Amino acid sequence: MASLQLRRESSMDQQESPRSPEAKLGMKVEDLWGVQEPKLSPNEKLNACFESIPVSAFPLAPQGIEIKSDASLAEAVQILAQNKILSAPVVDVNAPDDATWIDRYIGIVEFAGIAIWILQQSEPPSPRSPSSPSGTYFAVSINGMTSAVGLGTLGPEDASITSGDFFEALTSSKFYKNTKVVRDISGTFRWAPFLALQKSNSFLTMLLLLSKYKMKSVPVVDLGDGKINNIITQSAVIHMLAECTGFHWFESWGTKKLLEIGLPTMSPKEIIKCECRIWALSGSNCLAFLAMFPIACLQLNLLFSKRYLSESLFVYQVHEDQPVLQAFKLMRKNRIGGVPVVESGGKKAIGNISLRDVQFLLTAPEIYRDYRSITAKNFLIAVKNYLEKHDKRSPMLSGTVTCKRDKTIKELIQTLDSEKIHRMYVVDDDGNLEGVITLRDIISRLVHEPHGYFGDFFDGVLPLPENCRV
């Protein structure tokens, strides 16, 4: 009883002077938590609390960065990199001044799409996949390739396909400078129309979209407005949770250890090396299909992710002597945001490469010119040296952040938030990889989808663009 009283007093102190807008939001959840039916389980209570709070209550993002539809790829990369963001909405420059948001915005450009474009420029022509004639010619001439062999699984002997001067030559070419976001590469992005929430939609809806339905960010709009009101990201939700320490609802969940809430979701035997043939542990037919034919329609992706891909089954990884483009190819093929770089012949991670790191291939291509080839290890070394001179606060300088299975979910959230990272690798006592925990994994353990919750929510809102290849 004394312990309970102390926790209540601590919570009351927080309610009197919330630390931040996120803490004020946590206080709303706390108030709702206290009036829920006693017979409800803690998880059901959280669901009920978040269903009662409109998404408009979420703190506004500090800045609304947008990219114009006539921008070049180089300009888009610079905007994303300078503002340290993963994606941004694209505004149609031809839209009338009084256009509503659905007519004003074309879609969202993100580093995932830029990675796809880079892979297309580095690959030789393939009879089964369309490619830009200029890009194909550029890749062949720069890399000295004479045969049309697909990228496949690249090994150390193929590392010359990403020679040290490749990206410096690419970014200085007229081809790169004249490549437009909409005209030339719109099909590689999460394109129109993007799925947005109304301000009256619930917190629970937003949390489910960011977790179970694998959306990295969710725009919030007013139907009659011409602009996006807010963009809520997975990182923003994790920051909100980090600010809610001390509240009863958070402590009852956050003090549990990772194993108690089913994280990580794989055993050591399920860690798959990237150079091996990957066999699905469940839903094998679905995963084989996804590997062969990348899903372009988000509506179809939602269906498959819900039924077969709700758990992280593998830790995809690259070895330090493999080409860096193999890391981005793995991310593209398996629809993941990052992969660990492991030492050759071992299971210890020496670094991490994420989708956002593709920017360093285009914004600082000169840092690789002294390398005969850009392997994953060379990439990590070059980027680290570059950041030590230009951005000492970058998360990449923190090294590989790991944890063990006995860590609590609260400790994990605090580390992810303070380090500004999107995943943490779980290791054993010897430092060998055992699993990975992402922001999405954490949010998915906070709430659950009630039966029939979304109904026809997704119907008719996600048509497929003709040139979409994602």
TrEMBL record:
Domain annotation CBS: ranges: 60-126, 309-371, 396-454
Annotated region described as Disordered, given as residue ranges: 1-26
Domain of life: Eukaryota
Entry-linked Pfam families: CBS
Keywords associated with the record: CBS domain, Repeat
Annotated Basic and acidic residues bias: 1-11
Protein name, per record: CBS domain-containing protein
